[in-house]
């Protein structure tokens, strides 16, 4: 085992050890003694043999001790040694004590020990922590933010920022946490101010004047100007002191009020003058084919002409004809243009003829379709009995019709009476083909009653002779316009081959004419035809009973392509008689002349063609005001904004949106004088939270709250609109109640003494330590359910 020596110690060898032969040394016989240094100036005497070995061993053990020593410890950021560290090495086991640097504190001693050449921390392993400076202090009109550090301890920095409209007066906008506390004073902010204003002598300040002419204005101050005498403002009549201490606009001037009207395009001024003064009125006319944009006269006001001096070309937009449609529809029509109205079946034009003309007052005569009775109709395979009767007949009247030989009515009568109900005949005058149940065919017969007739749509069965069976194992047939379908056919029990059948509207893929039992053949249907499964290509197999399935190519319709409409179906193939419902896409509606929203698959394809037209609204008219944007036609969901002229006040909504039924809400009106509201409205079981005033002006708003146990229906905000409060909500009793409030995560409720709470009752909540409430701390019972707050976030525990 190797023994380690501390620095300053050496080994001594006994006499017995010295007598050993050679250079071997018994380490067990060596004694460790304090190493002595030679006298300065004297020489070291080296001996040979045994003594020479002793010197070499001493040198080796001294080197081992030096390897276990530690160099100077690294500098610590928050602590400093209590002794001066000047040595280049420190022996194993050496301990250095530390103290905290300025600005830091400790609760336990901090020591490092040299251990086998490495400095190790002696327990407890707690470092010095930064001293707390407490809160940096609040500043009026400013907020601060922690930009360095995680809390208000040594080394932290907070930066102050003035609120909008304020400026920093202090030299420094920050404070640092040092060993002796916060640096600098708490910064100070002062409101920005605008310089005094000096208006001209004919300009007066209506609102916002200062008591002293040279007094500054604060940020946000509003000054309203007016003119003295018959003058008008040139410039902005309102200026505001902005947050950066400048005025939003220059001080205005007052000039004489005059109006000019030199030229009106497509119009003429009546009794013209070069200049018009305030209060004078101008009258003008428009050329033929043009009309006044606003009205035929205008008043000279402070802001110019009160209404527009403009003539616009007369336009008429396509009318919405209920129960009818226009023959040739355009986006708009010009003056004297004519339109022809086609009324739907069961309706007639409201005036003689079918033509309406575009005039200055609109369409004349109005395109209106009125309901009529039932008209004369042509009956396929039959006819009406009253050829000389006056048509249309009135609602409730009846007609007689009869069917030709080989056809019967739906009730299987040759003669039938139909009544006009809701512009339609009931039953529908229609004749159906009679199928002969006694039809002969090989090896079988149809089973029927001798006294019965069979018409289109009726089903019967047939029976095959002994030894024969129905083709394709199908013994049921249906009467159609072309006779029995499928044609009744009986086949012999054993048939060794199948002959290629004649396939209408299709072709077999093989030229082979005869097929063995179990052989398969493919066939392809012509365009517009498929199998009953909707396949354009199919395969049939030759069985003893014949072809299975029987080859067929019947008329079908593919799903029609979509346009301004969509079909609600997943099918892709349809058969004659199938109907499809379609819906117009958003922004479109079914064309007025369309009877319903279905199309049917016929022999000619889909009929009728689906038709959707864009939803449009005509330009709304606002007297004494303007609209934005100004378009000839507004499409679905387009929004228009209303603005009243100067000295006029809007009564109604600020905007409206185009829907399929027109504008909603209805356009407002512009009134020169609006009425105030004299008193707060009385709403049962409700209170108005705002303070009462003797008079409320047009546009003032109040908030309504219902009493406990009552729920609010409608808007909680009501507005004074031309002397009336609108919209008025109602407070209805809510019978649903809440039980005890629920507990929340990281929070709890206070003073809960009841087990039943009514609608509107509240309960206070608080959060546990290290958490804070989000928004309100009140839970509210609403319609039998509690709305409770939340506790989130971990707070920083600041040392004051």
TrEMBL record:
UniProt xrefs under Gene3D superfamilies: Complement Module, domain 1
Biological process according to GO: complement activation
SMART domains referenced in this protein's UniProt entry, alphabetically: CCP
CDD domains: CCP
Residue intervals passing through the bilayer: 45-66
Molecular function, one GO term: complement component C3b binding
Alphabetically ordered keywords of this record: Disulfide bond, Membrane, Signal, Sushi, Transmembrane, Transmembrane helix
Keyword Nucleotidyltransferase attributed: no
Disulfide bonds: 162-189, 227-254, 677-720, 738-781
SUPFAM superfamilies membership: Complement control module/SCR domain
GO cellular component: extracellular space
Taxonomic superkingdom: Eukaryota
The protein's name in its UniProt record: Complement factor H isoform X1
